[in-house]
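Deliverable D5.2: sample structural annotation.
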Amino acid sequence: MRERQAMYQEITERNASASAQRDQVAAHYDQVRAIFDILNGKKEADLLLRNLNILDVHSETVYQGSILVYDKRIVALNPDETAIKVRQVFDGEGLYAIPGLIDAHVHFDAQLAHPAAFGEAIVPCGTTTIFSECLDFVSAAGAEAVPATAQLFKHHERLPYRVYAFAPGKKTSVEVTDALLKMEPVIGLGELAHLTYSVGNDDDFRKSALGRAKGGFMNTHWGVTTLSDMMLNYMPAIGAFANHDVWKEDDIEKSVRYGLQTQIKFGVGSAEVIKIMLRAIVKRKWPAENFQLCADNISVDRLLTKGHMDWVVSLCAEMGIDPIQAIKMATLYTARAFRMDNKFGSLTPGRFADIVLTDSLSKINPRFVFKDGELVAKDRQMLKHADIDYSGMVKEPVPGLGNLSPAELELLPLEISADGKQAKVYLFDVYGRGHEKFYQEVWVPVRDGKIVPEVGGVTLNRIAVVQRYANGKRHVVNGLFKGVRIDRGAVATFWPAPKAYFVAVGQDSEEMCHCLKQIDAQVGGCVVTENKAVKALLPLDIYGVMANMSLSELVAATRAIDAALEAMGNRNEGEPVVNKLLTLFISLDRFGFMV
């Protein structure tokens, strides 16, 4: 009986598969027939964009022409307008038409904005496609990782940009990675942990095997700055195809030589970092086809004030890269790297009608942005808003610092000099200088038996890294911090990925302790206090990593944090302080400061 049931089930599944295939063939038949009828004037197309200067990324030329769109895709270049029917005509005003820009690597779950709010920031910049990590969200969701990620991606097709995601290669279990690899829009395996794959961690072997079985897209921190020359072979040898972990000329040379598609990133920190890399590409005359452009991590505030891929492409041209090559690094070369250049990356028939109209090729200024042939942004203002409600993902906080005492935050020496006049302490420094100087052990003065927080004659704030849930003695790491400098008060952040730790910066242990307890009452976020009064608060109530806010609300909250800190003496440049502080959690875990 069981054999008959199994046979019946197998036949049923086979019939269902055959039926689905017939439906798919029928849909394709209707589409190819419709395109034929459109080109022969028998059926109406959706859109004709005319009066354009079209960039042909294949021949690297610009020609005057028009683009015909039907069912989200380009179906013709320079159609005979006397022979076609079209529902809508758009005057391109003689602007340059370039393919929609692509971010080759971004942690879209780590920008504090939920996917719809993130789109409000990137799409007006001309970005129509992103390749994204989701590891921070997955890690923060913990036991709910799989259903939470499914909910995060549930309505991804309603977003005004394309998102292709990677299952986590780190910060989560093999089982969770396996489950996510089966989801849409996941296309492969994301970042593996720097410091475990080089020692033969079995979980990394298993995740790598799953990534290879999925189709081979394995994105990596290659670890140029931390691995031996022998181990640098490992990631490309097992099939990793892309690397965004380059910081200087030698890193780029090795990454290119080992056959990796090398992603040049802007990210949180100093703009000088990307300029160093671009200068190296120009100096060494490396072919642009080796490179893609990406943000990695970038705040929505920086997107609004400086731009996204449009800014990075323009910076490439400013640094001496041919403007068309710079555009190709953010379009065709990225699409090819992901084997998707039959879908996007050029303005040619059959590709999605993702089109940006700009008045310059060397300084991208997205006047009009089309995604799937629909006008979604104009003059850096969003026209199509994704109506997606993420409030169902809001969580309740579970505080854990009730018994934290100010004494636990006191700065204690790692070592005292023989004469008792100096103490060795940790110095943390993350802003725009790569990982090599993330932390150091430095000597500081001791006066009247007390440690003086002074390095090279400059007074620094203290930093405390505090475990949220303690089983026994709480794990706390104290040191000095270069980056935020306030005369009074404190600032504290909580980012529960991959572990439940807080960071507090200030001068006074009691104020820092009070500040930590304020943010402990949140799922995640950032708070500024002065005299134990809250001056600014940014709650991240979607699993502790995203704000359930509109873009404008989120930007106002991050700017309020900066304003409160400025009133206390801080002078910030570049990314908002909250984004800078949250990047600390990545390196604190990577370098073993979290248990």
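Annotation notes: Residues 6-10 have pLDDT under 50 and may be disordered. The chain has three domains: 1-95, 98-353+371-391, 406-591.
The annotation will be released with the project's public dataset once the embargo ends.
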